[in-house]
Description:
single chain; about 350 residues; alpha/beta; CBS-domain; 2 domains; four-stranded mixed beta sheet; three-stranded mixed beta sheet; about 60% helix; binds zinc ion; metal ion binding
Amino acid sequence: xxxxxxxxxxxxxxxxxxxxxxxxxxxxxxxxxxxxxxxxxxxxxxxxxxxxxxxxxxxxxxxxxxxxxxxxxxxxxxxxxxxxxxxxxxxxxxxxxxxxxxxxxxxxxxxxxxxxxxxxxxxxxxxxxxxxxxxxxxxxxxxxxxxxxxxxxxxxxxxxxxxxxxxxxxxxxxxxxxxxxxxxxxxxxxxxxxxxxxxxxxxxxxxxxxxxxxxxxxxxxxxxxxxxxxxxxxxxxxxxxxxxxxxxxxxxxxxxxxxxxxxxxxxxxxxxxxxxxxxxxxxxxxxxxxxxxxxxxxxxxxxxxxxxxxxxxxxxxxxxxxxxxxxxxxxxxxxxxxxxxxxxxxxxxxxxxxxxxxxx
Length: 360
Ligand SMILES: [Zn+2]
């Protein structure tokens, strides 16, 4: 869908089953005598409903991709869907655009369904059209509530970001309204009882609780992510580079370690006869090799082959640096100048340490 894989979480089947059970009596009333088929009809209804959720998510994916952000899989879960966008938007406008297309798509589907409702004859199709109209308008409106992790929260985030020039401040603000939304969702059954006089059932409270937990944890995760990211811009790969020693790949490990100590190098890179780097020695692998064995094995046996993701530009910094490390998790990376000259080795341990120090 929209160039992304679509994953369906197991919780989705549970909810599809629940929807089937809830909708079945309505189907029975419209088309009597279906017997157990009414549950199949209910399940088909659930599939159609989630098809419209998929449209909502696909619109986020298409918008993000148009703005050059890589998009991962779309996951359907019990409270709707999620699109994995693997980059932060660079400008508030982009954040706004990617967020707002979702609810707008749902509202559009809802409006189209309302239009169809007028021309659809009585019967099961009308039940489906009615459901689509109601559900999509509800999803569209609720998603515009300005609190993270809802789309409206990202709209609010982009607005605060635009005004203050600080993305993280936007996230924190929208996180707080997201928490407030969670509290409101929790209190909703009581409010509803006040307004309508109908006693809420245990199911109402359970549903309100699940939604409140979903909102609260989503808002909290976004806020703590923002607090951490705030400290990241201080990180510059070049400043963390370890001095590195280049050795032939077949040099005995003990000799490579001895030379590295002598040269006060904090890392070892294996090179071809022509001096082209081919591997980075893993500190962990060296530590795991008994000292008495080290004279007898080639340095290349404890080196990780230099795949593309392990060669990083030395000037990588901040968020970009963290993203690059996340894309290709490893213990060591080779840092290179734009002209391909070897600058040194960046270790994840050093990045973690610098990060902790920056946090104080
Ligand atoms: Zn959305």
